[in-house]
UniProtKB/TrEMBL annotation:
Coiled coil (residue ranges): none
Annotated organism of origin: Arcicella aquatica
Protein name (record): ATP-grasp domain-containing protein
Source organism superkingdom: Bacteria
Pfam families: Dala_Dala_lig_C
PANTHER family: ATP-GRASP ENZYME FSQD, FUMIPYRROLE BIOSYNTHESIS PROTEIN C
Amino acid sequence: MSSTLSFLCISTYFKGNEFLRACKQAGNKVYLLTNKKLEHKPWVRAFIDEIFYVEEKADGSIDMNEVILGLAYMMRSRKVDRIVALDDFDVEKAAHLREHFRIPGMGQTTSRHFRDKLAMRMKAEDAGIKVPMFSSLFNDNDIFEFTQKVTYPCVIKPRSEASATGIKKVYNSEQLWEVVHYLGDRRHEYLVEQFKPGDVFHVDSISLHGEFVFTRSSQYLSTPMEVAHGGGIFRSVTVPIGSELDLALQEANAQVMKAFGMNYSATHSEFIKDHETGEIIFLETASRVGGANLAEMVEASSGINLWREWANIETAVAKKEEYTLPPVENNYSGIIISLTRQQYPNLAGFDAPEIYWRMNEEYHIGMIVKSESRERVIEILNDYAQRIYQNFHASAPVPDKPTH
């Protein structure tokens, strides 16, 4: 194998610059396949050898036959050794292309477990992992049986959308059937599951050869679903490091990754700690770095950049080389993000010395704080949440489709 490897990175959303940079710095050729409408985004072009664009159709989808033809033409003159999906929506595309061109990495069956929420539920349940009570929406009798056993409320959610888009909450069987009928011919793309009140956590990890090399557990103080549906302020904070809770979350995450056949990647998993029973229940996972600037929050507490280390692991695996994780710090960090009524909110007064990162986006306010004290992080987040709510906060209706 030549010492220079070629990576085709797929990102149909604007993200993954840090991966692209690290991949190039590791001595690889880096190709990026992205959406034509993202052509003018600030990609790290100095670290990308070539960019290929794909046009999306009117419904937002991408014609995979077109992508295969384009890639086949490109591969006449260029080698592609590895394909990496940088966003949730690209995981299946990457698996499809790997299988077609026989490129090593995660195939379609395994990738389904990291994209399709129904496949996740079924695989986890088979492996004895706790999941909310759920049902597919294929068969009327199965749905009826589910309505007889479940305690409401329930949520009906798309099997393959990222984040909290397209989720409907129902409080009785009449409402459930109403949504099923409303979905019509698309109902097979959804599932229904019991909504469990509890604290929601995310576990961000990097794995290699089926083992975790790094993990950080955090707790949503306002979950993505609450924010999307209730117009709240998004917040998350590191879980007490090494605590019983931290170890329980890491153990649950390890069970999921083993059951799903994860070999190497960055992963972002979500769990709920049931208020009633105290059990850790698996919600969902993704074979990518978490969104909503959670990577920056993890880096603030640990010193580990998930994008960079994922790129280094991809390179090490492809070259059959040893991989060493940089030293890990054990600080605490928290994130707060809100939509604002103002295009450019005035941030005077948000000046705690613990601020590690600030969001620079129109109609948004966002910060990550870092401290040796978890209590201090929570104190700042609570103070800032109150002030943001009073002076800046705006809420937008939840979209039916994810937005770029």
